[in-house]
Design a protein that fits this description.
Blueprint lengths: L1 H15 L3 E6 L4 E8 L2 E12 L3 H8 L5 H4 L3 E10 L2 E8 L7 E12 L6 E7 L12 E3 L3 E9 L5 E9 L7 H7 L2 H14 L9
Length: about 210
């Protein structure tokens, strides 16, 4: 019950911020919201899901970079370029349907843990500090892309998982098509994340 109340409060807060509910999967406790950006024709999204697993399990999945293509929507390929403490630099290739070109980028991902409350935040942003390790004229480079995972422990166990993101898709991709399909990707990602969380290899060792 506390988790349900928290979800309702979160939904109300998002509505107050101009967010509109775009997708809902009640059976998996997933909601996806979108809203327009004042400085862009491309919308941004914010999504949420309640999961019975602990934060440590969720973090284990999120930090398993080679497995990203198995569950994060549109990711075709990843390559870890650098690791430094709680920071990772990752080369990512995103697949898009024909006739649009695939995209690629270098993301810097930083994990932060709050001393009080146990909240974990992972922020990722496209950077120019590292060159693209692959040069392919069929791909469009992304330099304006950011996303955030926010993980909050729930009373009695479990985790509230929030994923938000915004960016410019670059190249040719009409905003009408982008915005119409925007909510599908976080919904698919969270659905597959729920399956990943159940895998034995991510469970805490006893």
């Amino acid at each position: 019950m506390p988790g349900l109340i928290a979800a309702c409060l979160m939904t109300a807060a998002l509505a107050d911020g101009g967010w509109e509910l775009a997708r809902e999967d009640a059976s998996r406790q997933i909601r996806v919201f979108t809203r327009s950006q004042a400085d862009s024709d491309y919308d941004e999204f914010r999504s949420e899901m309640l999961a019975p697993q602990s934060i440590d399990t969720v973090v284990a999945v999120l930090r398993d970079i080679p497995a990203w293509p198995e569950w994060i929507a549109r990711i075709r390929k990843v390559k870890l370029l650098r690791h430094d403490g709680e920071s990772n630099w990752v080369y990512v290739v995103y697949k898009l349907p024909y006739p649009f070109k695939d995209r690629d980028t270098v993301l810097q991902s930083v994990l932060q843990r709050e001393a009080k409350g146990g909240v974990v935040t992972i922020r990722s942003q496209a950077v120019r500090t590292l060159p693209m390790p692959e040069q392919d004229s069929r791909r469009v480079h992304l330099y304006e892309l950011q996303s955030t995972w926010r993980l909050t422990p729930l009373p009695g166990g479990g985790t509230r998982i929030e994923l938000s993101g915004r960016g410019q898709p670059g190249g040719y991709l009409p905003s009408l098509i982008f915005n119409y399909n925007l909510a599908d990707e976080p919904q698919q990602t969270l659905r597959l994340l729920r399956l990943m969380l159940a895998r034995p290899k991510y469970q805490p060792r006893k």
